[in-house]
Amino acid sequence: MRATSQASSHGIRTVVVPAAGMGTRFLPATKTVPKELLPVIDTPGIELIAAEAAQAGAQRLAIITAPEKQEIMRHFGNFDELCATLAERGKTTQVEKVQRATNLIEAVSVVQEKPLGLGHAVGCAEAALDDDEDVVAVMLPDDLVLPNGAMEKMAQVRDELGGSVLCAYNVTPEEVFNYGVFDVEEIDGHFDGFSVKRVRGMVEKPAQEEAPSTLVAVGRYLLDRAVFDALRRITPGKGGELQLTDAIELMIQEGHPVHVVVHEGKRHDLGNPAGYIPANVDFGLHDKTYGPALYTAIKAIISEYEAENPQL
Ligand code: G1P
User: Fold this and answer.
1) Residues 263, 283: one domain?
2) Atom in ligand 1 nearest the alpha carbon of residue 217
3) Which site from 120, 140, 279, 300 is most exposed, i.e. has the minimal number of CB atoms within 10 Å?
4) Does residue 204 line the site of ligand 1, with CB under 6 A?
5) Considering only CA atoms, which of 274, 268, 17 is closest in space to residue 147?
6) Which domain of life is it from (predicted)?
7) Left if phi > 0, otherwise alpha if psi is -120 to 50, otherwise beta: which for 248?
């Protein structure tokens, strides 16, 4: 039986998860294993997203996959034989681990035939939404935004201010060229416990000198359904791809209200080894089973490394 969420869904029924990328930064692993199935300790990134989406009240994950990446969907399938074997051997905790993804949420596949960009990927999800779903929730599985709960705050802002709401994170000026960057202004009034700003504009991966701020988009979007119409009207942008950022910028220019919730917690980037490894160290250190031994091992590795590199 599917677990029902305690959270109010704020109308979020479907969460769109773009997962069609080639995972080039993880080759050779991603020759056969989709990046989204690489584990953080023992749980694939896509299952962490499924849990976050379920917590935000969603019932359905619309996973955008490339034609050759259908293994992602298998993760949400039934593994009756495996569960029966594990149960026979008394491994009930493992049975629960196997069944968790399926119990969290219904996953449906949307195939993006060609890698034409994040904007195009999100556009592919239109048919997966019910006709009366007026909000398009998007979670990028590369981004872990911790602790969970960003979407709930964003939904609260959308309930009060309308329009679309994104999640912003402050990075260093040297890092902005990797992200969609916001041009923001303060708003009157406040939300309890978190900061909200109005977005005047948004630009995809600008050079450091051209960036309007150091507040960047981190993988959580709560967009008005009008985004599908905007996505049909944009032309290829950064990298020759159809960019979600450009559709949001077009909506802003046309008077659509867009706000950001500034995330003050932690964030891991699972999209490349330099972010994936720290995520595993962080989750590992906090893991009841592996944490203590991992802590000792990491300290020893660091001491050895420092001895080899006295200049540090
Ligand atoms: C995408 C978006 C970018 C956003 C980033 C967050 O870029 O295009 O605006 O800031 O995700 O992780 P990507 O990392 O897919 O190149």
Assistant:
1) no
2) 10
3) 300
4) yes
5) 268
6) Bacteria
7) alpha
Structure-token pair, residue 70: 């259908």
Q: What is the pLDDT of residues 99-137, one digit of tens each?
A: 999 999 999 999 999 999 999 999 999 999 999 999 999
Instruction: Give the whole-angstrom CA distance, residue 240 versus residue 117.
Output: 8
Mutate to test the pocket of ligand 1, among 24, 35, 118 (most ligand atoms within 8 A of CB): 118
Total number of domains constituting the chain: 2
* pTM beyond 0.90, yes or no: yes
Q: Do 150 and 277 reside in the same domain of the chain? A: no
* Same domain flag for 93 and 59: yes
> Which numbered atom of ligand 1 lies nearest the CA of 216?
10
Question: Ligand 1, closest atom to CA 204?
Answer: 9
Ligand 1 centroid, distance to 236 Cα (angstroms): 15
Distance of alpha carbon 45 from the chain centroid: 9
Instruction: Please state, in angstroms and rounded to a whole number, the distance separating the CA atoms of residues 209 and 164.
Output: 27
Cβ of 179 below 6 Å from ligand 1: yes
Whether residue 262 is found in the same domain as residue 298? no
218 Cβ below 6 A of ligand 1? yes
